Amino acid sequence: MDKIMLTLVETLRKNLFEAEAVENIEEARKRLFDIIPEEVSVSFGGSTTLQDMGVFDDLRKGNYQFIDWGIPDAEQKDKLRKQSLTADYYVTSSNAITMNGELVNIDGRGNRVAVLCYGPSKVMVVVGKNKIVDNVEAGLKRIGEVAAPLNAKRLNKKTPCVTTGKCQDCSSPERICNITVIHTKQNCNPGRIHVIMVNEDLGY
Q1: Residues forming a β-bridge with 19
Q2: Which of 30, 123, 182, 183 is the most exposed place for a label (fewest CB within 10 A)?
Q3: 155: alpha, beta or left? (left if phi > 0; alpha if psi -120 to 50)
Q4: pLDDT, tens digit (0-9, with 9 covering 90-100), for 25-37
Q5: If you write DSSP's letter for every residue of the chain in order, what string do you get?
């Protein structure tokens, strides 16, 4: 196991997050479903990490009340996103995680960061080692130069970063970098956010 990752897990615990480290995708998926009990309501934040792990397919096929807003109908999608705020469990990833044990995230709509801040009783955050950065400044830089351009391209957005490969601080109506949230501690409800660090590169 990467020593940097093990150190980060201890730092996250000091910041009152639940945290653990696993070697690979298979172990991460197993831990996720060991923790999430059957029959509870579960929703998610958009994540290539979880998509690549097959987590969404498992939730659709499993014995869960899956609040699945990944549908074409815009009006129904918005209703389901709002229901996600009251789900028992929420699964997502993080754009960056610092060696100080901080979660750094930027959203376009805000539904994912809203749930990270408040709502579901338990939030599971799966993060690959490629998202570890030194500090918040490095995290924001990573988002601007890696996560945001790749996500904008994946979502077929017409933003400058899709062409240039890095953030232009644009005024595009399709901009996906609108809301920034930095979690430094988890004091109000210790352990509510549970971070699973994976010793592989995952997602953007």
Answers
A1: 195
A2: 30
A3: alpha
A4: 999 999 999 999 9
A5: --HHHHHHHHHHHHTT-EEEEESSHHHHHHHHHHHS-TTSEEEE---HHHHHHTHHHHHHHSSSEE----SS-HHHHHHHHHHHTT-SEEEE--SEEETTS-EEEEESSSHHHHHHHSSSSEEEEEEEGGGEESSHHHHHHHIIIIIHHHHHHHTT---HHHHHSS------TT----EEEEE----SSTTSEEEEEESS----
Q: Measure the CA–CA gap between 35 and 15, rounded to whole angstroms.
A: 21
Encoding tokens for residue 202? 């995952």
Pair of tokens at residue 143: 């988002």
For the stretch 16-75, pLDDT in tens is: 999 999 999 999 999 999 999 999 999 999 899 999 999 999 999 999 999 999 888 888
Q: Hey, what are 170's tokens?
A: 């644009």
Chain centre distance of CA 11: 19
